[in-house]
Design goal:
heterodimer, A: 7-stranded mixed beta sheet, 11 strands, 0% helix, 52% strand, B: 6-stranded mixed beta sheet, 5-stranded antiparallel beta sheet
Chain lengths: 113, 111
């Protein structure tokens, strides 16, 4: 199994550009989520989904959109990139509610200039 | 915020020594998990302890949970250079579907 796959691994954007970070899992997990990791801040939840067609906001959702059309995929869209969105982004999936372990992708390092 | 805090922020020990790191959180939980992150990589699950458990072991890992103090500790015994990583605690809330991660402890094990 590939687990959780994120693409791209690195990305540089100019302020105002938009892009989509891809996340796919092959474990048939219902729950998927996106985090950003900044120095000294730990991981902060951006958006999450408890199943296909269902999404909800986390702690820091502004500037990001998500959709969940299939169980496998959970893309994260940056609508108009800002330097404050420079961060490392992680996608994670869990089999069920957060009472079980999460599986993480390898991360996308995004720089907005 | 539910976010936990790990203590210390950084820890440096000699190979073979034990490493202890602590996590404090703010509200009631169903379970608490510990994750490891090697530099430049994603997080890897280490161990989960439920709110009705007080101690749990997995190999060289020992986790304790004190719900009255809203705190947990992770002990790594007989540390190895390969244990060098950042360690995070993660909690859920009694309601909701979210993990809340702490700020992490950076562990360096010197060969």
């Amino acid at each position: 199994n590939a687990g959780v796959t994120q693409t791209p691994k690195f990305q540089v954007l100019k302020t105002g550009q938009s892009m989509t970070l891809q996340c796919a899992q092959d474990m048939n997990h219902e729950y998927m989520s996106w985090y950003r990791q900044d120095p000294g801040m730990g991981l902060r939840l951006i958006h999450y989904s408890v199943g296909a067609g269902i999404t909800d906001q986390g702690e820091v959702p502004n500037g990001y959109n998500v959709s969940r059309s299939t169980t496998e995929d959970f893309p994260l869209r940056l609508l108009s990139a800002a330097p404050s969105q420079t961060s490392v982004y992680f996608c994670a999936s869990t089999l069920g509610p957060v009472r079980t372990e999460a599986f993480f992708g390898q991360g996308t390092r995004l720089t907005v200039v | 915020s539910q976010q936990g805090e790990e203590d210390p922020q950084a820890l440096s020990i000699q190979e073979g020594e034990n490493a202890t790191m602590n996590c404090s959180y703010k509200t009631s939980i169903n379970n608490l998990q510990w994750y490891r992150q090697n530099s430049g990589r994603g997080l890897v699950h280490l161990i989960l302890i439920r709110s009705n458990e007080r101690e749990k072991h997995s190999g060289r890992l020992r986790v304790t949970l004190d719900t009255s103090k809203k705190s947990s500790s992770l002990l790594i015994t007989a540390s190895r250079a390969a244990d060098t990583a950042s360690y995070f605690c993660a909690t859920d809330a009694n309601t909701g579907n979210q993990f809340y991660f702490g700020t992490g402890t950076s562990l360096t094990v010197i060969p």
